[in-house]
Specification:
Helicase, Ruva Protein, domain 3; Rossmann fold; six-stranded mixed β-sheet; three-stranded antiparallel β-sheet
Length: 618
């Protein structure tokens, strides 16, 4: 690029606006004339010289994007790309002659761009002649039934043309469920994992009715679920426990929901019966300072102004498709990243984001994995492993051998097993099948070589410590504050059962999210951080939800601001401030239906969230 700048006479550090049109075109799209490229040594001697054409940044980026086999590099390049409609068909995908075929003035793209709810009305009110009705009778029957199934599982707000990649896990699961309803199969066993993910209580009722319909036509349904309403509507419940991890794996109780409630051994039963509850806070935090998001218009948001109080727990509620994720992630998160960190990511359509007091950073705590390879684990992610390695390096035997903390890292040559490079596993590539991991024969999965494993701390090697649960490690390091405090934080969020060296690929989304929370809690607080969470109760038992609320309160007590998208009423009732979007999903959503404290939202008649809050706050 230096040769290009020299040829066209521009400064590489100067703004693009100061470049000539000819130089800019050459830089971005390539040169039409040959340029002399020199590679010089530090002493000024020319090592290599060549005359050729400059490829151009855009052609080069496109070539690298298609040629690279690295997912990381591809993701990095995608940050500089934008998806825009095809200029020929304007995003409609079909030829003009196909789009010329219409029914009541609508072509096939017009119909698929409508929501499922609108499609139900469209096909219900079609004006057809008797002959047309006879021809279309069977087709219309199938269309109406399939649209009906999608509506019954709470997806009436989706458009038929919605890209599958933009669907949440819960939405994708419910679409598959609607497909099964339409097949009318009998004698089938269906297994569902948390089907209520992302569902408001209004839509949850529809989902339960759908599950009952599948049961009533002769099928068996096994559902992994924590939602109270779904559990109470079940025919039979199997409660696992009594704890998690090493403390779990047993059937604590089984029977009808009423029998579970009466079983003194069942923690689930105690919450179902009301013997254990998540209490409503005695006081709501107040704030006179706000993050002001002006003119939100992305997707279905109706040019709304949203004011999020600083220094409190704010819940964003509303039915599925009401605009919650668009507001918080597409506009607030991306807008704040651009404002605070000069991010190149383009936020959703809005006018401006202003804040009454300083916010120094914005952090998303989601349920994505803490690492994508078996090498990542809770000990390394929370940084507690750094302190553990230092303690091992301070033992008498380690000092005699001259071992430093790096000796006890499975990421560094010297102490790790070189046969598996510290993974403890050997990856076997299966070509057209997913990769398979098998235990390393050299170190038997310990990750370290024999010399490193000879160093002991209270008769435990570094591999033994990684194999410990958080609770076990807490007892071992109870007298070492720097380690004890981090382990205590993991215990507080209900993760005392996980192993320190447990592979990140085996952690659930809820576990990964809580590990991220502990990392934030252990950091030195600035008191000016904005935390964003989306459905943090996914996969959490009532008892874990109670712990989660405490952890979120700890973040706020340090002066931070926490914004949570959530449907779980125990979390909603614990909020300081609620912003309820709706009233419905899709085109009928995108407005602020109610805002204020839970008690204030409960009085708003047009709010579905308020309706359910009124019952539990009464």
């Amino acid at each position: 690029m230096g040769a290009l700048a020299k040829h066209y006479g521009f400064d590489l550090l100067a703004p693009v606006s100061e470049m000539s049109e000819e130089a800019y075109d050459a830089l971005m799209y390539g040169s039409e004339v040959k340029i002399k490229f020199d590679l010089s040594m530090r002493n000024g001697d020319t090592r290599w010289s060549h005359k050729g054409y400059w490829e151009g940044l855009l052609p080069q980026t496109e070539r690298l994007y298609h040629q690279t086999e690295s997912d990381y590099r591809r993701r990095e390049l995608e940050k500089f790309m934008r998806i825009s409609p095809c200029p020929q068909c304007e995003g409609k995908r079909l030829k003009d002659k196909i789009l010329a075929v219409t029914i009541e003035g609508r072509n096939i793209i017009d119909v698929t761009d409508m929501s499922i709810k609108q499609n139900i009305e469209f096909f219900k009110d079609l004006s057809l002649s008797e002959k047309q009705k006879e021809i279309a009778k069977q087709i219309l029957k199938e269309i109406k039934e399939r649209l009906g199934f999608l509506s019954k599982v709470g997806l009436s707000y989706l458009t038929l043309s919605r890209n599958a990649g933009t669907l949440s896990g819960g939405e994708a699961q419910r679409i598959r469920l609607a497909t099964q309803i339409g097949s009318n199969l009998m004698g089938v066993m269906y297994i569902l994992d948390e089907p209520s993910i992302g569902l408001h209580q209004v839509d949850n009722r529809k989902l339960i009715e759908t599950l009952h319909r599948l049961r009533d036509i002769g099928n068996t349904l096994i559902v992994v679920e924590h939602d109270e309403t779904t559990i109470k509507m079940a025919d039979y419940v199997i409660d696992m426990g009594p704890g998690a991890g090493l403390q779990g794996g047993k059937v604590v109780a089984r029977g009808t929901p009423k029998q579970i409630e009466r079983n003194p051994k069942s923690l689930t039963g105690k919450y179902l019966s009301g013997k254990l509850t998540i209490p409503v806070p005695d006081n709501r935090r107040k704030s006179g300072e706000y993050i002001r998001i002006e003119g939100c218009r992305e997707h279905n948001l109706k040019d709304v102004d949203v004011h999020i109080p600083i220094g409190v727990l704010t819940l964003i509620t509303g039915v599925s498709g009401s605009g919650k994720s668009t507001l918080i992630y597409e506009i607030l998160y991306k807008g704040m990243m651009r404002k605070l960190h000069k991010s190149k990511v383009r936020p959703g359509d809005h006018d401006d984001i202003l804040f009454d007091s300083e916010i120094d950073k914005v952090i998303v705590i989601d349920q994505s994995p803490i690492g994508k390879t078996p090498r990542s684990n809770p000990a390394t992610y929370t940084k507690v492993f750094d302190s553990i390695r230092k303690i091992f390096a301070e033992t008498k035997e380690a000092r005699l051998r001259g071992y430093k903390p790096g000796r006890f890292s499975f990421n560094v040559r010297g102490g790790r097993c070189e046969a598996c490079q510290g993974n403890g596993l050997i990856k076997i590539e299966m070509n057209f099948l997913p990769d398979v991991y098998v235990e390393c024969e050299e170190c038997k999965g310990s990750r370290f070589n024999s010399e490193t494993l000879e160093i002991r701390l209270k008769k435990k090697s570094i591999a033994d410590v990684l194999a410990m649960s958080v609770n076990e490690a807490y007892e071992l390091f109870e007298k070492i504050p720097v380690i004890k405090n981090k382990l205590e934080t993991l215990r507080r969020v209900g993760l005392g059962y996980i192993k320190l060296g447990q592979s990140s690929t085996t952690l659930s989304g809820g576990e990964a999210q809580r590990i991220k929370l502990t990392r934030e809690l252990s950091k030195k607080a600035t008191g000016r951080t904005l935390y964003l969470l989306d459905e943090p109760t996914t996969g959490l038992h009532f008892h874990d939800v109670k712990k989660l609320i405490t952890v979120l309160s700890d973040l706020i007590d340090k002066g931070n601001t926490v914004v949570v998208i959530e449907h779980n009423l125990d979390v909603v009732k614990s909020a300081d401030h609620i912003i309820d979007l709706g009233p419905e999903g899709g085109d009928d959503g995108g407005r602020i239906v109610a805002e204020g404290s839970p008690e204030e939202v409960a009085t708003v008649k047009g709010s579905y969230t308020g309706k359910f809050l009124k019952r539990i706050l009464a």
